[in-house]
């Protein structure tokens, strides 16, 4: 296997494990057995082992001597800290993205929200809706063109997803989240960087309150 092929396989396995975690199929505390996961994904153990190490680096998994790797479990104080930092950094990302976004990016963000809005009329699908949410926020962060910010938020958002796996189940949560996404995009489209910052920060703050209530 060539290096590009190996990298592609490693990324694919990592994304598959991340999706299993975000969808709740591997809830916090679940063991991440390399042999079992390799059999489940029908791949060799090496890419699974590397993917688990990446998850540990991202804060989505922990490793304990003699116990192996498990999906991370954060206490209430840690969750609060994650959302408090995200509230600031997501606001910064939206502010920067507003200044950097071109017409094509604005159109892409608008289409993303339209898809989310259309899906509100269909039954919830945790895996699908969580993936669309992650894609939306990732595009805004990448548009900010701040690599340090993107890396920090990718780690924090991953940890936040551990504690809102049911966010996309209830009708109220789904509609509130999509409405908040719409406000972020409207500010970006209008060129209102301060408004985009406020909308993104308010979105994260609202997510934390709704997550804590559930």
From TrEMBL:
InterPro entries: GntR_C (IPR011711), TF_FadR/GntR_C (IPR008920), Tscrpt_reg_HTH_GntR (IPR000524), WH-like_DNA-bd_sf (IPR036388), WH_DNA-bd_sf (IPR036390). GO terms for molecular function: DNA binding; DNA-binding transcription factor activity. It holds the Pfam family FCD. Residues 7-74 form the HTH gntR-type domain. Keywords: DNA-binding, Transcription, Transcription regulation. Gene3D superfamilies: GntR ligand-binding domain-like, Winged helix-like DNA-binding domain superfamily/Winged helix DNA-binding domain. It comes from the Bacteria. This is GntR family transcriptional regulator. The lineage of its organism: Bacteria, Bacillati, Actinomycetota, Actinomycetes, Mycobacteriales.
């Amino acid at each position: 296997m060539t290096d590009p092929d190996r990298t592609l396989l490693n990324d694919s396995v990592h994304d598959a494990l991340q999706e299993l975690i975000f969808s709740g199929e591997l809830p916090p505390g679940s063991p991440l057995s390399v042999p079992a996961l390799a059999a489940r994904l029908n791949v060799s153990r090496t890419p699974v082992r590397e993917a688990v190490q990446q998850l540990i680096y991202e804060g989505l998994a922990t490793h304990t001597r003699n116990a192996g790797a498990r999906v991370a479990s954060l206490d209430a104080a840690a969750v609060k800290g994650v959302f408090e930092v995200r509230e600031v950094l997501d606001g910064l990302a939206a502010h920067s993205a507003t200044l950097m976004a071109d017409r094509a990016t604005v159109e892409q963000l608008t289409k993303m929200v339209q898809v989310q809005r259309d899906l509100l009329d269909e039954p919830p699908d945790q895996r699908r809706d969580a993936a669309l949410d992650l894609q939306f926020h990732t595009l805004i962060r990448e548009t900010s063109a701040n690599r340090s910010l993107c890396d920090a938020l990718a780690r924090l958002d991953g940890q936040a997803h551990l504690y809102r796996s049911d966010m996309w189940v209830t009708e109220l949560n789904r509609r509130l989240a999509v409405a908040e996404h719409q406000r972020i995009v409207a500010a970006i489209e209008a060129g209102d960087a301060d408004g985009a910052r406020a909308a993104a920060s308010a979105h994260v703050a609202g997510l934390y309150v709704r997550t804590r209530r559930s």
